[in-house]
Amino acid sequence: MKLQHKKNSILREKANAYIITVFDKQSTIHKSFKEIDKKINNKITKLLKDNKLKTSVGSISEFPVSGELNADYLFVVSLGEKKQFNIDVLRTQTANVFRKIDSMKLNSVAFSLEEIMGSTNKKNEAYQAVSEGVFLSQYSFKKHKTKIVNKDTSIKDISIHVSGEKNSNLIQKMLERGKIFATSANLTKDLANEPANYMTPTKLAETALEIADSHGLDCQIINKAAAKELGMGSYLSVAAGSNQEPKFIILKYSHKSAKNKPVALIGKGITFDTGGISLKPSAGMDEMKGDMSGAATVLGVMNAIGQLKPKINVVGIAPCTENMPGGKATKPGDVVYAMDGQSIEVLNTDAEGRLVLADAISYAVKEKCSAIVDIATLTGAMMISLGSVRTGVFANNDVLFEKINKASQKSNEPIWRMPLDDAYGKMIISNVADIKNVGDREAGSITAAKFLEKFVGKTPWAHMDIAGVMTIKQSKGEWTKGMSGNPVRTLIHMICDY
Ligand code: BES
Ligand code: MG
Ligand code: ZN
Question: Is 281 within 8 Å of 331 (Cβ atoms)?
Answer without folding.
Answer: no
